[in-house]
Amino acid sequence: MSARPELNRRFTCAPMMDWSDRHCRYFWRLLSQRAVLYTEMVTTGALIYGDRERFLAFDPAEQPVALQLGGSDPQALARCAQFAQQWGYNEVNLNCGCPSDRVQSGRIGACLMAEPELVRDCMSAMSERVDLPVTIKHRIGIDDMDDYDGLMRFVDTVAESGCRTFIVHARKAWLQGLSPKENRDIPPLDYTLVARLKRERPELEIIVNGGIVTMEQCQRLLDEVDGVMLGREIYANPYLLATVDQTLYGDPAPPPSRAQVMAQFMNYCERELSKGTKLNQLTRHILGLYQGLPGARRFRREISENAHKKGAGIEVLEKALSQLGGEARALPDPQ
């Protein structure tokens, strides 16, 4: 079991299906030591009946890391929360925000906002089984439930379980008529609703998610809420993470350079390749590291065109780095 560092959710990296796997999280941790990382959503069925090692294994270097669960059966969720504690996670989070038809059919995700009493019971069942923080991620509303009173009823009901951390995606979800992709952009953002929630429930930890793209925006939002969660922006532009520890936590150490990050990640790749991991499973997460710098497009192309090939090894990354110019090409020893 890994040691659990103390959680400080001032800055968190969102759970993202097909993206925030263990290789992605290891890469992100090289950029920020303080951000709290979240797994992809894992369903209770996958953990109870599937390959638990595949879904729960993580490198101790990823800490602090939280497991996000998808499900609606209190006892199944409680059992999976126990798995999270046994495997050394720092937090268990319930997904009540995903709008996809696939998870709705399994009574998972944003559709649960229509059943706050069930969500409360799920949270209570998990909290009774583990010593970890049990938290929730949800929308500001669903379909025609888009008024502030509806949001408050949901939060107050869930809070009866003892839950004190609410990660709020500041968009409602249209469960009928919009695709999951459209639900990330079309419903308008309403940060004011989330800020009001914090003002009126100051005893709760309120973290805002949705549409955040800069550190300046993070700082403004942190004047009104307890934490911020970023997802797509840090995946597309991961070096944004390198400024988190200094900007939002006040750490005195300078941020790591891209070259330092790449040197350490290449060492990780060599270890993973020796275990049989395919190179493209590792490198797909780093394509945006040099975004905006000379040679970034050539760097991405070299990896995209070659990392998937049979037998591809570390030489693909070495050649990709050779496409960069100036300081970006240097590879000092990892600090």
UniProtKB/TrEMBL annotation:
Keyword Transport: no
Binding positions (FMN): 15-17, 68, 137, 169, 209-211, 231-232
Pfam families cross-referenced by the UniProt entry: Dus
Catalytic activity: 5,6-dihydrouridine(20) in tRNA + NAD(+) = uridine(20) in tRNA + NADH + H(+); 5,6-dihydrouridine(20) in tRNA + NADP(+) = uridine(20) in tRNA + NADPH + H(+); 5,6-dihydrouridine(20a) in tRNA + NAD(+) = uridine(20a) in tRNA + NADH + H(+); 5,6-dihydrouridine(20a) in tRNA + NADP(+) = uridine(20a) in tRNA + NADPH + H(+)
This protein's record includes keyword Transmembrane: no
Residues the record marks as site: Interacts with tRNA: 95, 181, 184, 297, 300
Cofactor: FMN
UniProt keyword annotations, A-Z: Flavoprotein, FMN, NADP, Oxidoreductase, RNA-binding, tRNA processing, tRNA-binding
Source domain of life: Bacteria
InterPro entries (alphabetical): Aldolase_TIM, DUS-like_FMN-bd, DUS_fam, DusA, tRNA_hU_synthase_CS
SUPFAM superfamilies in the record: FMN-linked oxidoreductases
Catalytic residues of the enzyme: 98 (proton donor)
GO MF entry, a single one: tRNA-dihydrouridine20 synthase activity
Domain DUS-like FMN-binding, residue spans: 13-322
EC number: 1.3.1.91
Enzyme class: oxidoreductase
Classification via HAMAP family: DusA_subfam
Family, per entry: Belongs to the Dus family. DusA subfamily.
Task of the protein: Catalyzes the synthesis of 5,6-dihydrouridine (D), a modified base found in the D-loop of most tRNAs, via the reduction of the C5-C6 double bond in target uridines. Specifically modifies U20 and U20a in tRNAs.
Identification of the protein by name: tRNA-dihydrouridine(20/20a) synthase
Organism of origin: Gilvimarinus algae
Lineage: Bacteria, Pseudomonadati, Pseudomonadota, Gammaproteobacteria, Cellvibrionales
Name of encoding gene: dusA
